[in-house]
Design goal:
The chain contains 28 helices and 9 strands. By secondary structure, the protein is of the alpha/beta class. The strands form 2 sheets. The protein has a 7-stranded mixed beta sheet with strand order 1-3-2-4-5-6-9, with helices on both faces. The protein is elongated and about 120 Å long. It is found in: Endoplasmic reticulum; Mitochondrion membrane.
């Protein structure tokens, strides 16, 4: 209206004005009108074109996902932007009204012309600042693997979204994206919805009884002796009968040791732990994993996991079972649906290395988008535990010895006067509970660092499974099979071993040399670090006759005897083999005696026994337990090991 009025006034002025002596006055007024109207029309056209194109770009998404998610009761909807400037002013209101008008026009024209935008424009209402969320969602579901991984990475690195936007991703993403976010270091935990509500327990049953029912439903035939042993004890009629069988208060990890006779009942958490140990053994069998899932085991384990938030050992055993079940790809969907990815993502961010590593193993077995390997029970990746763009060029494997473990064997040496450690724990350069995970990973980020765990004992009295009699030869074949499934041998590798673990490494390499499918393990082995390995036997076995504690020495201890023919054959065969393959070797040996219990003090591995016959032999003034535990990062033990790894893998790390 204002434009028309202005034109009329100008025309009247031109018509009623007296003739000017200058003839160009009339054309000057016309040019003014043309400039004004032309600018207005051009600007309006550009504005409309921009808004239409913006709408078209923002609305090219999968509307079925939008409609499906709108039906969910837990959709998070925002009512107003947090930026006050966006919600006030005539520009914002005019733009909003223009969006609605153009949307109606385009929807109507699309219906008439049967165009491709009929459904999107009629059903979707997406603000500009929300486009990134939906575009990333769409990108994460593409067939192009590179595009999918990039979308997940962009999601994980986004920290400026509102709460409802994270929840949109959590509800609309597929399992593959959810697992990828759980394995991304920077992911916000708001990407993960709380697990579904668990079914209520039957009034007549406790969790302990539910666990026993689950165990009883599993096949009981064709089981090895250890599975039968754990299952039979877990299925005892009551806690009292189990306590009577164990001779008083039962403590997991022992068999036949004297316990407090004054306790008549076993704590329920202890019985649950025993049931979990049996389930771990069952979960190593694929058919039994199917039965566990079919009988509600995933939900029951989740209930137990939440109940024992203050018991890390129970939670770790539960994650071991989930990690074993995740080895079966057809069970990935039930595991995701039951809400385990959310719990594992939270555990991955735990400051405790053991909890984080158990969760990392389970998620790695679930992640088939970036992980080809499968990590069986007892094989833990210490680095990298998250998805990473850092190329991995070599592997370093850590194998513990007698009474050791995948994490505690490689911790920092315990201080004699240990005070409050809160401040020290924050600085991993000064204090760590697992130096390969913190120090070595930081110094050599291009390495994949794996630690292996297996059961050992000094005496059959302390065996977790008294029926288990595993020789070094048996364990080496078992570990070799697990490590090959984890991709060991595909890259250059270095073995790091302590005590009996070194004998296992030697046996594994000799066995691999006899199997064509294991040739890559031999060809890619670059070097070995031996921490006090008894190549020629140990004094430990000599005490078995005189010391009551070792009255019934385990098979592992018997094989360490100096007169063991198997040990001598292993040493002779490996020495010749290592020389032929030109393996780089570094030997450390303790010079101080070690206390075993409160009564035994002995030099476990003397210097002459730790001498392989090749490589440097370095005596260190520590005992047998601390030979693989540096006091601090700049200690000689760690720095010499780091130097050996860098020098041995120098060419591989440069390529």
């Amino acid at each position: 209206m204002s434009l028309a009025a202005y034109c009329v006034i100008c025309c009247r002025r031109i018509g009623t004005s007296t003739p000017s002596p200058k003839s160009n006055t009339y054309w000057r007024d016309v040019r003014k009108i043309i400039k004004f109207t032309g600018s207005l029309i051009l600007g309006g056209s550009l504005f409309l074109t921009y808004e239409v194109l913006a709408l078209k770009k923002s609305l090219t998404l999968d509307t079925q996902v939008v409609e499906r998610e709108k039906m969910k009761s837990y959709i998070y909807v925002h009512t107003v932007s947090l930026d006050k400037r966006e919600n006030h002013g005539i520009t914002y209101q005019a733009r909003k009204e223009l969006h609605k008008a153009v949307r109606k026009v385009l929807a109507t024209s699309a219906k008439i012309l049967r165009g491709p935008f009929a459904d999107p424009f009629s059903t979707v209402d997406v603000e500009d600042h929300e486009c990134a969320v939906w575009l990333l969602l769409r990108k994460s579901k593409l067939d192009d693997r590179t595009a999918r991984l990039q979308a997940v990475q962009e999601m994980s690195e986004t920290h400026h979204w509102h709460d409802y936007q994270y929840r949109i991703i959590a509800q609309a993403c597929d399992p593959r994206t959810l697992i990828g976010l759980a394995r991304s270091k920077e992911s916000d935990l708001r990407f993960f919805l709380p697990p579904p509500r668990l079914p209520s327990l039957t009034e007549d049953y406790s969790i302990e009884e539910e666990l026993r029912q689950l165990l009883a439903s599993l096949p009981q035939t064709e089981l090895d002796e250890c599975i039968q042993y754990f299952t039979s004890l877990a299925l005892s009629e009551s806690s009292q009968s189990l306590a009577a069988q164990k001779g008083g208060l039962w403590c997991f990890g022992g068999n036949g040791l004297p316990y407090a006779e004054s306790f008549g009942e076993v704590p329920s958490a202890t019985v649950e732990m025993f049931c979990l140990e049996a389930l771990i053994k069952h979960s190593e069998m694929p058919t039994h994993c199917d039965q566990i899932e079919a009988n509600g085991g995933l939900q029951l384990l989740q209930r137990l996991y939440r109940l024992h938030k203050d018991c890390p050992k129970i939670q770790r055993n539960i994650m071991r079972i989930i990690g074993n079940m995740a080895l079966n790809e057809h069970l990935h969907s039930p595991i995701v649906r039951s809400g385990w990815v959310s719990l594992l993502a939270e555990a991955m961010k735990s400051p405790h290395i053991m909890e984080a590593s158990h969760a990392a193993r389970s998620l790695a077995n679930l992640d088939r988008d970036t992980v080809r390997e499968k990590y069986q029970d007892g094989v833990y990746v210490l680095h990298p535990q998250y998805r990473t763009s850092q190329p991995i060029k070599a592997d370093v494997l850590f194998i513990h010895g007698l009474m050791g473990a995948a994490f505690k064997t490689w911790r920092q040496q315990d201080a004699e006067q240990q005070g409050p450690t809160d401040q020290a724990s924050e600085d991993e350069a000064r204090h760590t509970t697992c130096w390969p995970k913190t120090w070595l990973a930081r110094d050599c980020p291009a390495l994949r660092i794996i630690s292996v765990e297996y059961d050992t004992s000094l005496s059959d009295w302390r065996a977790r499974c008294p029926m288990e009699r595993k020789s070094i030869a048996f364990r080496s074949n078992e570990l070799l099979r697990k490590l090959r499934a984890a991709g060991v041998g595909d890259r250059p590798l270095i073995w790091v071993s302590h005590s009996m673990g070194g004998l296992l490494v030697k046996k594994m390499l000799l066995e691999a040399s006899k199997k064509p499918e294991m040739n890559t393990v031999i060809n890619n082995t670059r070097g070995i670090v031996f921490y006090s390995v008894p190549h020629h036997g140990s004094h430990l076995a000599e005490y078995s006759v005189n010391i009551r504690y070792l009255l019934f020495p385990s098979l592992e201890v018997k094989e360490l005897s100096k007169d063991s023919p198997a040990l001598k054959t292993l040493q002779d065969d490996f020495l010749e083999f290592a020389k032929d393959k030109n393996f780089q070797v570094l030997n450390f040996v303790e010079t101080l005696p070690t206390y075993i219990g409160s009564m035994i003090k002995l030099h476990v591995v003397p210097v002459e026994s730790a001498d392989l016959g090749i490589g440097d032999l370095i005596p260190v003034d520590v005992n047998h337990l601390n030979i693989c535990k540096p006091k601090q990062k700049d200690a000689f033990l760690y720095q010499r090991t780091l130097q050996f790894i860098r020098e041995t893998l120098a060419k591989d790390l440069e390529n």
